[in-house]
Structure formats: structure tokens, C-alpha cells
Specification:
The protein has eleven helices and six strands. By secondary structure, it is an alpha/beta fold. It folds into two domains: 151 residues, Rossmann fold (3-Layer(aba) Sandwich); 57 residues, Winged helix-like DNA-binding domain superfamily/Winged helix DNA-binding domain (Arc Repressor Mutant, subunit A, Orthogonal Bundle), CATH 1.10.10. It has a six-stranded parallel sheet with strand order 2-1-3-4-5-6, with helices on both faces. Strand 1, helix 1 and strand 2 form a beta-alpha-beta unit. Helix 8 crosses helix 9. The radius of gyration is 20 Å and the shape is elongated. The two termini are 31 Å apart.
Length: 252
């Protein structure tokens, strides 16, 4: 694992009011964007950066940052394992998950211990607000991740009529072959519709499509190519292309 310039421990007592923010991400441009943003904040500073979840957890034990940002592109299962480990180990760190998250994914992260959930492409001021809240022990979410208008219709213009039918059958527990029979289409066509639903919902598991209220999360199609989930490796401890952060926006 590559580590980016951890702050020496002997600096911890110099400015006790300044909170250290660490990041676990595989994209150097995102890490450097965060470093640039934090360099101009009076109350937050860059702690360390790692490129693997397991390595970052080990560094958290040594450096004890106030906030640990975790990139959701490591995979929902791996990130939730990381969050559960942080919570169960009682580390004094506030986890924040950033990335291109669906509503279902964001809720799952909060349920497993994240104190903040934010889009990676959020405005700088929004990101800073999230980090400050998490450092203070306050749960924070970006409005357009979890917000739902009251009485909103569950259907969504991003779903075709056929995709809506396929989703309804998935929610009833039908497999691809049964869906094809029910709708009078080929098995290959049924599988294609299911893949489209995965892409639009930004999920990787069939069971995630069955979560209540997920239809409302098809707000937009995911841009770019999705990255594979990585194994977290937390058993050893316990025994799309997101947009880069802009540094041109007003800061702290």
C-alpha cells in the first residue's frame, strides 16, 4: 500500500483544535485535490492517504485521525465491512463515505457506522461542511442523496416501461428465466434488462434491487465505467470514474 505523507505524531499537540482528515482512495487526483482543499482550511488538515482499506485501518490505529474518508468505489460490501470494523473496534475516528452512491447504498453506509455520506463531485463547501460535522460527531448527509418528496410516485422517467415491469418481477423474487416467461421475451433479453437496472441503480447485487423505495433512486444514469469491488481483508484484522474535487471553488 502506498501512503501519502503522514503527519508526524509529534505535531499532534501543536494545534489541538485542528482536526486531521485521512483518506482511503485509489485515485491520486482525488487525494491531491483533498490535500489542496485542506491546506487552506484553518480547522482541518490533511493527515494521511492510503490506497487499500486494510492498510488504512492499520494506519488509523497509529495516526488516529479525526475523520477517515473512504471511497465507495472499493465496493459496497468491502466498505461496509470496514465501517463495521471501525465501529466494533471503537476507534476514535469518524468515517465519511464519498463516491457516486445510490440512495440504498447511502442508507446502508449510515446503518453500518458512517457519520457522513457525500458525493465525490460535491461542491467544496459541501464537502467541508460534511467533514466538520463528522469531526464534531454529528451525522451528516448530502441532501440530494437521501431526500425524497412526500407522496412521490415510485416510477421514474429513467426507467423504460419494460424495465419497470422487470423490476416489479424482481421485487417479487422471480429469476431471469421466470421473468422471460412472464413477459414473453428471451432469456438473453431479460438478463439485459436486469443489467440495465443494475447500472441505473448503481448496485451490484440482485437483492439490492429489492430494497424498499429503491425505485426512487434512479435519478440519473451512472457516468463512466464502474470499478470492480475489492476484497477488504478484515477477517485478518478481527481474528465509473468519479469526478475529481475542484480546488477552484471558495474554501473554508
Amino acid at each position: 500500500m502506498q501512503v501519502e505523507s503522514p503527519v508526524p505524531k509529534n505535531m499532534a499537540g501543536i494545534h489541538p483544535e485542528v482536526k486531521a482528515v485521512a483518506v482511503c482512495d485509489t485515485e491520486p487526483i482525488a487525494i491531491e485535490g483533498l490535500r489542496a482543499i485542506l491546506s487552506r482550511c484553518a480547522d482541518l488538515r490533511f493527515g494521511f492517504a492510503g490506497t487499500s482499506l486494510l492498510g488504512c485501518i492499520q494506519l488509523v490505529q497509529e495516526e488516529v485521525p479525526a475523520v477517515l474518508i473512504i471511497d465507495n468505489s472499493f465496493g459496497t460490501a468491502a466498505v461496509t465491512d470496514c465501517l463495521k470494523h471501525l465501529r466494533d473496534s471503537a476507534y476514535a475516528v469518524a468515517p465519511v463515505v464519498w463516491g457516486d452512491l445510490s440512495t440504498a447504498e447511502a442508507r446502508s453506509m449510515l446503518q453500518h457506522g458512517a457519520l457522513g455520506v457525500v458525493h465525490k463531485s460535491a461542491p467544496t463547501a459541501t464537502l467541508i461542511e460534511c467533514l466538520r460535522a463528522a469531526a464534531a460527531g454529528i451525522t451528516w448527509t448530502e441532501n440530494n442523496i437521501l431526500w425524497r418528496p412526500e407522496g412521490a410516485n415510485h416510477t421514474n422517467s429513467h426507467l423504460t416501461a419494460r424495465e419497470t415491469q422487470v423490476l416489479a418481477l424482481i421485487e417479487k423474487g422471480l429469476g431471469d428465466r421466470d421473468i422471460a416467461v412472464q413477459l414473453g421475451i428471451t432469456l438473453g433479453t431479460a438478463k439485459l434488462h436486469v443489467r440495465h437496472l443494475f447500472a441505473k441503480a448503481r448496485v451490484h447485487r440482485r437483492t439490492a434491487l429489492m430494497e424498499p423505495g429503491l425505485r426512487g433512486s434512479y435519478r440519473r444514469k451512472r457516468s463512466g465505467r464502474s470499478r470492480p469491488a475489492f476484497s477488504s481483508g478484515f477477517d485478518d484484522l478481527t481474528s465509473g470514474h468519479p469526478a475529481a474535487i475542484s480546488v477552484e471553488e471558495p474554501l473554508c
